[in-house]
Design brief:
Chain A: InterPro entries: ABC/ECF_trnsptr_transmembrane. Chain A: Keywords: Membrane, Transmembrane, Transmembrane helix. Chain A: It holds the Pfam family CbiQ. The structure holds two protein chains of two kinds. By secondary structure, chain A is an all-alpha fold. Chain A is 71% helix and 2% strand. Chain A has eleven helices and two strands. Chain A has a two-stranded antiparallel ribbon. In chain A, helix 2 packs parallel to helix 10 and helix 9 packs antiparallel against helix 10. Chain B is α/β, with parallel strands linked by helices. The chains are: A mainly alpha, B alpha/beta. Chains A and B meet through helix 7 and helix 8 of A and helix 2, helix 3, helix 4, helix 5 and helix 13 of B.
Chain lengths: 288, 560
């Protein structure tokens, strides 16, 4: 079974996500941001039906809402006045700016949420194991230890609880001493086990020479095609940005919201870059 | 040409006066399947580590080890790492990576294999060991048996010529253990790979070996064929007699070994019995059952419809279980069937999600009272987590803290009983797995407990020590106290327990007295029962039972 976008080579997917983040920060125009929001929502829906996104709804709503409200309250810049009180005025510019900022925040969060589903830790580490093999291995080992140590500490605590009658009464000081003791036990135990793990690494020739790195991913023609597509559409967007397109000047005075012909063309490129996963999945469906 | 040759090998750990290995000489031909056995601390592991150059312990070595005619230390590093493979006892502690495939290629990466070669070897090895299905899973989610196969696969991918296995099945359930051993044997048969392995549960491993080496106190005392090994063990004294696997032990004890080949496997044992079938056996009589019917007295501990869930997984499902005073209950179950969780729930360390637990008829509340803790002792699966103090001696003293003079006397008794004297000043974590089990069990026995809950107490423990545990637990139960233990060791349970239960898929499935439990099982049963079942001879579960039954019926003369 093909998994479409997620099956592409990690290099391609990683370039996609870096590109998305870059473009989100570069293109500062309400139309761009709005369409990006919709597309990224679609990308999220594609992978898990938006479950993970839904889990983050609180945090996302909060941040976006706060920015949306705080910006008009703190900024009085701009010429198009929306409402004027005795000591404060709210301008169109400030409201729009806040809206765009919160839109970008939402988009960035949505990007990261789908990123986690498409590029899990091991894929990410694979990307960097080529550059820094020893460090990548170290990170893998360290990451694996964190849940292990936590679980073990829980177990030590439990077993020690079953022995508590051996000490007559537990004062605060005694209890503190006990927690330190637990950490100490955790440390000696984990060191002991670390030695065993080191033995098993050495037994399999760790340190005999330069390590090679196994790649479970092969570079296939469709990866090349996808990369080409991303480079062209991304490059076009970047070129457009250097020409001053896709960016709305807001302060001190809001520019025109409408787009020029070149602006529309840029939006097209922008959308095709952001919507790339959707395109891939749709293409896959048509092929089936 | 010899694959491996040890010439007068001796070894001294730094700071110890007695040598760990003394004057060991043997040679092993290519393709041999060699079992190395002996009591704990006899130097088996040290010897294996001497052969695996990367793991050679620091210390003073004398003599020489030759691999393929070359002294081991002159072997190029990548050859030493690749051609001599080693798998250790603990399945989980050897795993380095998070992902199964990454773990599999770890060794190959170390030796700088090309991606193409790694892919091919990985495919071949996984297909051979039947690991395809788990390849994309995280290593943490594998069962103990799968983990150990993965460790084997990762070593095999390097194409070793000599495979060293240090108690590889010590942590596996009986079914997984047999599967692992047979996989290794098949490798040996099909590829001619030389294998040297150590093992404590010899019932399954012993018949597979081509040759047996017995060590004791750092010396090699026997080197020869398995059948001769059994006879040698019988004659050389009580220290070695415990090593004899059940079936030959039974046959030697009933005196039927004169002439002819000594049976080692269940199949051979049955054939041996059939050859004597036409002899005038007395009619089959049921063994006298001791206290088989339980009077409807109050259980000491009773679980009623207990459910227990970890985050997403339901481990115990509506489990109902009664423990009576004076019992010694053994709980079986595959790796990951929830045995450990059940014990923790019974120890009151994990509150069940639903259901109730009563202790002496009083219902447990969620709050753990000191009184409850005082009465129940719990030995965790990893004895490392049990210890609180710097030295073994301090542990033992803490355990008998509230003791008067009489208890101190018992402390001394326990120390000598478990022969802990040499360890008293050592840190508990510096001991081997079996020694740690001993110390933890000693501490528990010093406390004044009513209920003892032991999670796999026989793991990594040698036969001699196992029979000591068995005696102690039985006498503990006879004092009107109660023991519940989980184990993978059917032979141990058969001699120790009064009742056995099987935990499967979160439910207690079968529960019965030792005799009836083992008589109803096909695989979770002892070698002796598998040998005597349906043969017309009085069926027996343990060696002692068989000897008693057969000899009680004018046995000796009939059988020999």
């Amino acid at each position: 079974m093909s998994r479409g976008f997620r099956d592409l080579h990690p290099v391609v997917t990683f370039i996609y996500y870096t590109g998305v983040l870059l473009l989100l920060l570069l293109m500062f125009h309400p139309l761009f941001i709005l369409s990006a929001c919709i597309l990224l929502l679609a990308v999220n829906l594609l992978y898990d039906g938006g479950k993970e996104l839904f889990r983050w709804k609180g945090a996302m709503g909060m941040t976006a809402g706060v920015i949306l409200v705080v910006n008009p309250l703190t900024s009085e810049r701009g010429t198009h006045v929306l409402w004027e009180g005795t000591s404060h005025r709210v301008t169109w510019e400030a409201v729009l700016y806040g809206g765009m900022m919160s839109g970008i925040i939402l988009c960035v969060m949505a990007t990261f949420i789908s990123y986690q589903q498409v590029i899990p830790t091991n894929k990410f580490l694979y990307l960097f194991s080529r550059l820094l093999p020893q460090w990548a291995l170290l990170i893998v080992l360290a990451l694996r230890l964190v849940p292990l140590l936590r679980e073990r500490l829980g177990e030590i605590e439990m077993v020690h609880r079953s022995r508590e009658d051996e000490i007559p009464k537990l004062s605060l000081q005694e209890r503190l001493r006990r927690s330190m003791k637990r950490l100490e036990v955790l440390l000696t135990w984990s060191l002991e086990e670390g030695l065993q793990r080191a033995d098993s690494m050495k037994a399999r020739g760790y340190g005999t020479g330069r390590r090679s790195s196994y790649s479970p991913y092969r570079w296939r023609p469709q990866d090349g095609g996808a990369l080409l597509f991303l480079l062209i559409s991304g490059g076009a967007c970047f070129y457009g940005w250097t020409q001053g397109l896709g960016v709305l000047t807001i302060y001190p005075e809001m520019g025109s919201l409408g787009l020029t012909d070149e602006g529309w063309a840029l939006l097209g490129g922008y959308l095709s870059f952001l919507g790339f996963p959707v395109l891939v999945e749709l293409g896959g469906m048509i092929h089936e | 040409m010899n694959d491996l040759k040890c010439v007068q090998v001796g070894f001294n750990y730094p700071g110890t006066s007695s040598p760990a290995l003394q004057n060991i000489s043997f040679s092993i031909a290519p393709g041999e399947f060699v079992l190395l056995c002996g009591p704990s601390g006899c130097g088996k592991t040290t010897l294996l580590r001497m052969i695996k150059r990367e793991l050679r312990p620091a210390g003073q070595m004398t003599g020489e080890i030759l691999y393929g005619g070359i002294p081991l230390q002159d072997l190029p590093a990548h050859r030493a790492a690749g051609e001599i493979g080693m798998v250790f006892q603990h399945p989980g502690h050897q795993i380095v990576m998070e992902n199964t495939l990454q773990e599999l290629v770890f060794g190959m990466e170390n030796l700088g294999f090309s991606s193409e070669l790694m892919r091919r070897r990985a495919a071949e090895t996984t297909a051979y060991l039947g690991l395809e299905k788990v390849l994309s899973r995280p290593t943490e989610s594998l069962s103990g048996g799968q983990k150990q196969l993965l460790n084997l696969a990762s070593v095999l991918a390097l194409r070793p010529r000599l495979l060293l296995l240090d108690e590889p099945t010590g942590h596996l359930d009986p079914v997984a253990a047999v599967r692992f051993l047979h996989t290794v044997k098949r490798l040996n048969e099909e590829t001619g790979m030389t294998v040297i392995f150590t093992e404590h549960r010899l019932e399954e491993a012993y018949p597979l070996a081509d040759r047996v080496l017995v060590m004791n106190q750092g010396k090699l005392c026997f080197n020869g064929l398995p059948r001769e090994g059994v006879r040698w063990m019988k004659e050389s004294g009580p220290g070695h007699r415990d090593l004899i696997p059940a079936i030959p032990s039974l046959i030697l004890q009933t005196g039927g070994s004169e002439g002819g080949a000594l049976p080692l496997t269940v199949k051979e044992g049955r054939k041996w019995l059939q050859e004597r079938e036409n002899l005038p056996f007395l009619s089959f009589s049921d063994p006298p059952r001791r206290a088989s019917s339980f009077s409807p007295r109050q259980p000491l501990l009773s679980l009623r419809r207990v459910d227990f869930r970890y985050a997403e997984e339901t481990v115990l499902k509506q489990t109902t279980f009664d423990i009576f005073t004076g019992e010694c209950v053994a709980i079986f179950g595959g790796n990951g069937s929830g045995k450990s969780t059940l014990l923790k729930v019974m120890a009151g360390l994990l509150p069940p999600n639903t259901g109730s637990i009563r202790y002496r008829g009083r219902k447990w509340t969620r709050r753990v009272s000191r009184e409850r803790i005082r009465r129940i002792g719990y030995l965790p699966q990893n004895p490392e987590s049990y210890f609180l103090h710097e030295t073994v001696e301090a542990e033992l003293q803490a355990a008998s803290r509230q003791a008067g003079e009489e208890r101190r006397e018992r402390c001394r008794e326990v120390i000598s009983g478990f022969s802990l004297t040499p360890f008293l000043s050592r840190h508990p974590h510096d001991l081997s797995g079996g020694e740690m089990q001993k110390v933890a069990l000693a501490c528990l026995l010093l406390r004044d407990l009513e209920l003892l809950l032991l999670d796999e107490p026989t793991k990594g423990v040698d036969p001699e020590c196992k029979s000591l545990f068995s005696r102690l637990l039985k006498s503990f139960a006879e004092q009107g106290k109660t023991v519940v233990l989980t184990t993978h060791d059917v032979e141990f349970a058969a001699v120790t327990a009064t009742r056995c239960s099987l935990l499967f898929d979160g439910e207690i499935l079968a529960s019965g007295t030792v005799g009836s439990f083992f008589r109803e099982n096909d695989f979770y049963t002892t070698a002796v029962y598998r040998m005597t079942r349906d043969t017309g001879v009085p069926e027996a579960v343990t060696v002692e039972e068989a000897v008693r039954l057969w000899q009680g019926q004018s046995g000796r003369s009939v059988l020999s």
